[in-house]
Amino acid sequence: MYPEPGSNALVILAGGKSRRMGTDKVFLDYQGSSFLEHLIRKAVPYFDRILISAGSAAHAQQIRQFLAQPERPEGRPLPEIIPDHYDSLGPAGGLMSVFEETGLDSFAAVAVDLPDADMQVLSCLESLLKTIRQEPPASPKPCAVMLALHPEHPEPCAAAYHRFAYGLLKSASEAGIRSPFRAIGKERILFVTPEELKKSSPCFLGLDFETSFRNINTMEDLAATVPASDSDAR
Predict the structure, then answer these.
(1) Can you give the residue ranges of every domain in the chain?
(2) Are 80 and 51 in contact (CB under 8 A)?
(3) Which of 50, 62, 191, 193 has its CA 20 to 30 A from that of 204?
(4) How many CB atoms lie under 10 A from the CB of residue 116?
């Protein structure tokens, strides 16, 4: 039985270069707000702590100014924004920077280009990781849990990471390995499929995982998310 989703931390990986999109996805309009604000709004009911992994110190400042706009709801604190300390390491650099800058033992992680990501799924992944780490000693224990929409294609940017993953990410980065999946290795990752989640809790039975965790990498991807009636009206 999978644990019930509980209070935990979410890291929004927002430091990508957005080369295929042609503009920074963080600030791009999505369903009446930005990609980033859309994810934050969805995350608030499920996560006590929300952090944003920015691409650099300058990018962190851009995000901070963007989120501090006057129309921001009063009383809602700004998420923590952590600049990526590494250059050209992609999500691995963002994950390592979060571990280096925080006291977190574990957190869920989602890419900013997954704006429809289901927060209950992400919360469940982190709760599962915490439960595994608290079980009697075993060798080796998983230090990451990844959603696997397809058996051969786990999603490192819809996942949960434990602090023990940091050393593996660091060693791999020194060898030029950017992929969190390759850095951590199959034997240290627990892969969770939609079917397993649906069996674990009725709350996931009606969830369309393919739609909820689709990447929006290009303007064509973005246009495909707009209902035909809305698209025709533009």
Answers:
(1) 9-233
(2) yes
(3) 50
(4) 16
CA distance 79 to 139: 36
Which secondary-structure segment (H or E) carries 182?
A: helix 180-184
Nearest-angstrom CA–CA distance, 158 and 114: 8
Which residues, other chains included, contact 100 with Cβ-Cβ below 8 Å and sequence gap of 6+?
Answer: 85, 166
Euclidean distance between CA atoms 42 and 68, whole angstroms:
18
List pLDDT tens digits, range 9-56.
999 999 877 666 767 888 998 888 899 999 999 999 999 999 999 999
The answer to whether residues 156 and 146 touch, using CB atoms and an 8 Å cutoff, is yes
pLDDT of residue 231: 38
CB atoms within 10 A of CB 128: 20
- Sign (positive or negative) of CA dihedral 83, 101, 115, 113: positive
CA distance 54 to 12: 9
Q: Which fold has domain 9-233?
A: Spore Coat Polysaccharide Biosynthesis Protein SpsA; Chain A (3.90.550)
Closest CA to 12 of 94, 68, 72: 94
| Collapsed DSSP state (helix, strand, coil) of residue 7 | coil
